[in-house]
Amino acid sequence: MNKLKFQHDQGVEFNHMLHRRIKAYFDESGQPRTGNNTMVFKIVMYFALDILFYCLMIQAPNVTMFYVYYLLMGFFVLLTAFNVSHDAAHGVAVKSKRWNDWLFKLSFNLQGNNAYVWGKYHNESHHAYTNVEGSDIDVLNNPLIRMTHTQERRWYHRYQHLYAPVLYLFYSLNWFLFRETLMVLGISSRTIKIKLPIMEVIKLFFFKLVYIGFMIVAPLMLLPFGWQPVIIAFLLNHAMVSIIFTAVLGVSHLSDRVQHPEPNEAGEISMSWPTLQMITSLDYNSGRRFLNWTLGGFNAHALHHLLPNICHIHYLKILPIFRQTAEEFGVEYMEVPYHQALMSHFRFLKQMGHATSS
To answer: Under 8 Å CB-to-CB from 250, ≥6 apart: which residues?
Structure first.
């Protein structure tokens, strides 16, 4: 991972004032920066719904209800990831460091994915160097979808804005089957080389087997429907999770409204870290209570990037402070209705499909 040197600009003063005002808010309100009782309720609720629909699924009276319960379980597992796993990875879901670690690893590993890889590189790479190729792990060099100017443009990229939604349907399944497995083999579309400790390699394959066990093997053994409905439900679930996941997260950093900065040969980037966060994140409907409750604050991405040590349960209260401070310091806060964010994402894909390599 290429570490970058930042410059001093107006974003530094903006960030200092923002932190002072946020500290004053929490001091006056007496609230912890981590999750409060409402967050504890959300954690219990989402895990309870996961368990409820799994139990209903493996006791389904017919194939139709089996599909319904299977997909509902998958839907709430995804919301658990949005609302619990993410905040726990940042150590803010609850006050206890041990409980945060346990909640994160449990909820992430039981989805068949490796908590170590995501937790480490999400915090140390994506949050530190957002949208910078070679430094942000989420910047891909994918031969099918061109997302950076340095990637060679092939003839079919001009159509990527048309075929991308089809590929997005396989995002979750690709993550489970190939993404981390290829990392172990030293093969990855990530622009950062990743090496896993041997114990994490063991955990990676162990939890993938566990996941197959309760998502495929258990329904096959406990239900009389045969293997076809189980495999279909498994694939439909991954397609549903994929399209929701990419729809929620893809529009925030892959957009023609945000920037994709390039450092110079000395590893210097011509802005401060707070400025980088503001110009690389596009928010949508960040003040909506329903979206905060279901998406865990992912629609308030700029706020999260600047204040990752605050639980999303507080976002609706501190958003006015964030907006006011940005306005006072002349720092643009990019927020649009969701449909505009979605259109911006596809305009970006179209532009990248036609732009020449740098």
So the answer is: 168, 345
